[in-house]
Design goal:
2 copies of one chain form a homodimer. In chain A, 32% of the residues lie in helices and 25% in strands. Chain A is an alpha+beta fold. Chain A is globular and about 45 Å long. Chain A binds chain B through residues 36-37, 92, 96-101, 124, 152-153, 155, 160, 163, 166-167, 170, 177-187, 191, 194-195, 198, 200-201, and chain B through 36-37, 92, 96-101, 124, 152-153, 155, 160, 163, 166-167, 170, 177-187, 191, 194-195, 198, 200-201.
Chain lengths: 271, 271
Amino acid sequence: MNELDLIELILHETSAYVKAKYAGRTRLQVHEKRGANDLLTEVDVAVQDLIVNRIKNSFPTDAVIAEEEGLDQHPASPPSRCWVIDPIDGTQNFLRGLFPAFGISIAFVREGAISAAGIAMPITQDVYLAERNCGATRNTHPLQVSRHGDLGRARVEVDFSNPEDREFTLESLGRVIHAAGELRCKGAATVALCAIAAAEAEAYVHVGLHPWDYAAGQLIVEEAGGTASRLDGSPLALFDGKEGILISNGAVHNALLAQLSMPHDPVRAPE
Amino acid sequence: MNELDLIELILHETSAYVKAKYAGRTRLQVHEKRGANDLLTEVDVAVQDLIVNRIKNSFPTDAVIAEEEGLDQHPASPPSRCWVIDPIDGTQNFLRGLFPAFGISIAFVREGAISAAGIAMPITQDVYLAERNCGATRNTHPLQVSRHGDLGRARVEVDFSNPEDREFTLESLGRVIHAAGELRCKGAATVALCAIAAAEAEAYVHVGLHPWDYAAGQLIVEEAGGTASRLDGSPLALFDGKEGILISNGAVHNALLAQLSMPHDPVRAPE
């Protein structure tokens, strides 16, 4: 089994599990991580454990970087083979969502480049997959980004971050918020990025993400014909220590970069 | 058949129709109304016609106010019996949505007061109903708003409006955006209001809505225990000519009003 096959297998297994847990979400144990709006449930942990176990069974010596439980380190020089995982991107939505926008995200990274990736949306049971230079699919159907290039008519997904980062977020995104056609904020990077790949939105901007938030989505968008960069226009490299991302259909990319008055891209403080 | 029974019957019929049309949405004719981001499809028109016909069959002399096709007048003194309809609230999402957040909204208004209301979410096939003084339900299960009273931990849904109204929207909502715990923007009032009624969010703020956008949702939230007002704190009356609305679980209402620095509530220009 190659890496993409393994990703697909794991996503189907975990997606069904998460959908079942969603039905009983009011009975879940919830913990706060770094603040009142940064939540962790037993489902995040169980899904991550399941994913890590499946990977270790097939590729025992590969490294794993993931959001929860002590696997959340991202070194400047990653191992030559590593996996980047977010067991549930959008935990808040998982716990409370009317339109439950959350995804399971798995990327395989070889020599620092994302080479295979998948995202599952448990509630709709959609599975998005991509392999470098081989295109992206949703439920096996090929995906192609939109060609809309007019920012004033584009649908742009933003994120307002936690209250502690709100001021900086608004300063950074102010001109984007003024210039975009439609604005949406669903609170899950995976959902925003899959929407761009499927031509349902044009761009996603976030000032502070970890590699596991966007690794899989980045490859899916790029393989559907889109573009990814840092907020200063530099290439989006998973382990460069920067936090801001702009991922788009390509056609609105430069217009958005021009609205992001970022003299320096945000850089993560050493952890 | 009373008014609520009729609403429920119509919602089930139209919800199934809209779900089927959603599957073929890329083949729909789309027209611009007041601008590039204000869209109308043949489905909006067909659903409105169907709803109006069903109402006229049962209550031939009742007045109807609705979003499309010349029924979009809202008089200062409405007739003693009238219906307020939005055939598809969230047309943009209907056309493009990954998590398709749009609703069908029907309210029955007696002597100016909303007395029965329903909203259907076609994709999830959920039906929300409310009757004044009799509570609100989702798929027959009673609804109760959340009790969260801390704005810094509350989930608040906002809307950034069309680009033409963006500047005014940001000025009006700036302090709310800074103060809220989680911010979401799904672009459909019906979806936001049903989320509040179901304790999945705490509040919704919008600076410029028509009565058909919120009439049904307002009653559903109020009957689930929530509160509705204009942005200046005055009672939310459908035909008072004002446009801004704040609808919440009640517990965060005053904290939000304090952040809305609105000396005068926006008033609609005569149409």
